Request: fold
Amino acid sequence: MPTYEYHCKECGYTFDVRATVAEKERGLAASCEKCGSGELEQVFGGFSLITNRSVKGRSADSAAGGCCGGKSDCCS
Reply:
Protein backbone atom coordinates (compact mmCIF):
# COMPACT_ATOMS: atom_id res chain seq x y z
CA MET A 1 0.00 0.00 0.00
CA PRO A 2 1.49 3.39 -0.95
CA THR A 3 2.51 5.90 1.69
CA TYR A 4 1.89 9.61 1.09
CA GLU A 5 3.82 12.24 3.04
CA TYR A 6 2.07 15.43 4.17
CA HIS A 7 3.26 18.64 5.83
CA CYS A 8 0.90 20.67 8.05
CA LYS A 9 0.83 24.37 7.16
CA GLU A 10 -0.44 25.25 10.65
CA CYS A 11 2.06 23.57 12.99
CA GLY A 12 4.80 22.35 10.62
CA TYR A 13 4.41 18.67 11.53
CA THR A 14 5.22 16.14 8.77
CA PHE A 15 3.56 12.72 8.76
CA ASP A 16 2.68 9.78 6.52
CA VAL A 17 -0.73 8.56 5.38
CA ARG A 18 -1.14 5.03 4.04
CA ALA A 19 -3.89 4.70 1.45
CA THR A 20 -4.64 2.74 -1.69
CA VAL A 21 -4.28 4.41 -5.07
CA ALA A 22 -8.08 4.34 -5.42
CA GLU A 23 -8.50 6.13 -2.08
CA LYS A 24 -5.95 8.76 -3.13
CA GLU A 25 -7.68 9.32 -6.48
CA ARG A 26 -11.05 9.81 -4.70
CA GLY A 27 -9.38 12.39 -2.45
CA LEU A 28 -8.03 11.83 1.03
CA ALA A 29 -9.73 13.69 3.87
CA ALA A 30 -6.53 13.77 5.91
CA SER A 31 -5.91 16.01 8.89
CA CYS A 32 -2.76 16.70 10.89
CA GLU A 33 -2.00 14.01 13.45
CA LYS A 34 -0.59 16.62 15.84
CA CYS A 35 -2.96 19.65 15.71
CA GLY A 36 -5.95 18.34 13.69
CA SER A 37 -5.69 21.01 10.98
CA GLY A 38 -6.82 20.21 7.45
CA GLU A 39 -4.35 22.73 5.96
CA LEU A 40 -1.95 20.19 4.48
CA GLU A 41 0.36 20.02 1.51
CA GLN A 42 1.68 16.82 0.04
CA VAL A 43 5.45 16.43 0.13
CA PHE A 44 7.02 15.00 -3.01
CA GLY A 45 10.48 13.51 -2.59
CA GLY A 46 12.87 11.34 -4.50
CA PHE A 47 12.87 7.59 -4.57
CA SER A 48 15.34 4.79 -5.10
CA LEU A 49 15.00 1.84 -7.40
CA ILE A 50 16.99 -1.24 -6.50
CA THR A 51 17.38 -4.02 -9.04
CA ASN A 52 19.54 -7.10 -9.37
CA ARG A 53 20.45 -6.37 -13.01
CA SER A 54 24.09 -5.68 -13.78
CA VAL A 55 26.03 -5.30 -16.99
CA LYS A 56 29.70 -6.17 -16.75
CA GLY A 57 32.14 -3.65 -18.22
CA ARG A 58 29.50 -1.35 -19.73
CA SER A 59 26.98 1.19 -18.54
CA ALA A 60 23.29 0.40 -18.80
CA ASP A 61 22.98 2.88 -21.73
CA SER A 62 25.72 1.24 -23.77
CA ALA A 63 24.35 -2.24 -23.09
CA ALA A 64 20.98 -1.18 -24.45
CA GLY A 65 22.49 0.49 -27.50
CA GLY A 66 22.84 3.96 -25.98
CA CYS A 67 20.55 6.84 -26.79
CA CYS A 68 20.26 5.87 -30.47
CA GLY A 69 20.10 2.10 -30.35
CA GLY A 70 23.77 1.68 -31.22
CA LYS A 71 24.02 4.20 -34.09
CA SER A 72 27.26 6.10 -33.59
CA ASP A 73 26.39 9.22 -35.58
CA CYS A 74 23.10 10.31 -34.00
CA CYS A 75 24.36 11.58 -30.61
CA SER A 76 27.21 13.79 -31.75
Observations:
- Confidence is low (pLDDT under 50) at residues 58-64.
- The domain at 1-46 is CATH 2.20.28.10 (Rubrerythrin, domain 2).
- The longest helix spans residues 21-26.
